[in-house]
Amino acid sequence: MPVKPDIQELPQDEIRSVLDAYPFGYPSEWKRCSQGYANRNYRVRLDAGDFLYRICTSQTLENTERETRLNHYLHEQGIPVAPPIARNDGALISPSPAGPVVLYPFLEGSTPDYHPENVRVIAKAAAQLNQLPCPEALSKANPVGVEAAHTFIEGTRDHPCPDHFRRFAQAFEALYPDLGEPEDRVLVHGDLFRDNTLFQGHELVAILDFEDYCLTTRMFEIGVLVNGFCSPANRPDPALVKALLESYHAVSPLTGPEIQRLPAYARWGALCMIFWHLRSLLDAPDPRKVQAIDGHFERLSHMKNVPASL
User: Fold this and answer.
1) Taking a C-beta distance cutoff of 8 angstroms, is the pair 190, 214 a contact?
2) Alpha helix (H) ranges present in 82-137?
3) 116-305 maps to which CATH number?
4) How many CA atoms lie within 13 A of 210 on its CB side?
């Protein structure tokens, strides 16, 4: 069957060279399957079926290796993830001119709707994830954590396009006292928005993209979930927040002080997304990211209304 690439940016000889290292046969088709802010993902059809061909472009090779090993570990622990597929030589990452490549099974599913049952399902999975021990070799600090934010603000005070950077600094400095001292340090995904999950109906197929995983407080995970799963039109929905807290609490009980700090961590969840986009704007302007930042600032303005009770 002739090769029918849908785009020109991935040379045929490059993809064939990488896939020769796997026991799945000849690539007959491939197409770009997402246009996210990071990485390049392709659906590749081989003799053995369909696979996800990911070119990792948004982090260092060391962090790509950590993320890949973490996915393998989580799969062994029963967390619903897409496990990386080993090459013939046992390696999980292939070098390529475009960047490190990881091959995954292609999983069928879609981004979930804002729905209480979907929230309950992801909250349960997040609580189970947060209870797992993190192997010492995979330990990683929060790339958008409090210390990183302090460093970032100091380094960008003289940025030539200061408006968004100044707003971030002002919002962070206002929020910081409300975060309090964390009671825990656990393994978190760190970016649990709906588009980092696959569902079929109300069934969770997989949690995706662990690039921002780290060890931090579980309230960070919950605050991001409020933003990612409970805030249609950038406004927190009390019924969805209630479903999130009840489902998480049923697996991993929350303390009174943690629940009281939920509005602060919901605001921190919005700020962290702004932080993530601002870091990448240091490299090059991107109108999509500026638009995303504006949306996160809008959501941030509503997060003080998050209910702090079960």
Assistant:
1) yes
2) 116-131
3) 3.90.1200.10
4) 32
Q: CA-CA distance, 244 to 123, in Å (whole number)?
A: 6
Number of other CB atoms surrounding residue 150 within 10 Å: 14
177-232 residue pLDDT tens: 999 888 899 999 999 999 999 999 999 999 999 999 999 999 999 999 999 999 99
* Distance from C-alpha of 245 to C-alpha of 247, rounded to nearest angstrom: 6
Name the β-bridge partners of 198: 206
* Six-digit token string for 136: 């010492």
Q: Judge contact between 16 and 39, C-beta under 8 A.
A: no
Residue 221 near residue 190, CB atoms below 8 Å: yes
- For the domain made up of 4-105, give the CATH fold: Phosphorylase Kinase; domain 1 (3.30.200)
- What are the residue ranges of helices labelled H in the chain? 12-19, 61-76, 116-131, 146-155, 163-179, 218-229, 238-251, 256-260, 262-281, 287-302
The answer to whether the 4-105 and 116-305 domains have the same CATH topology is no
Q: How do residues 10-41 score in pLDDT, each as one tens digit?
A: 778 899 999 999 999 989 988 888 655 578 99
**CB-based contacts of 216: which residues, under 8 Å, 6+ apart?**
141, 142, 145, 182, 185, 186, 188, 190
The domain locations on the chain are 4-105, 116-305
**3-state secondary structure labels for all residues of 9-42:** CCCHHHHHHHHCCCCCCCCCEEEECCCCCCCEEE
Does the global pTM surpass 0.70?
yes
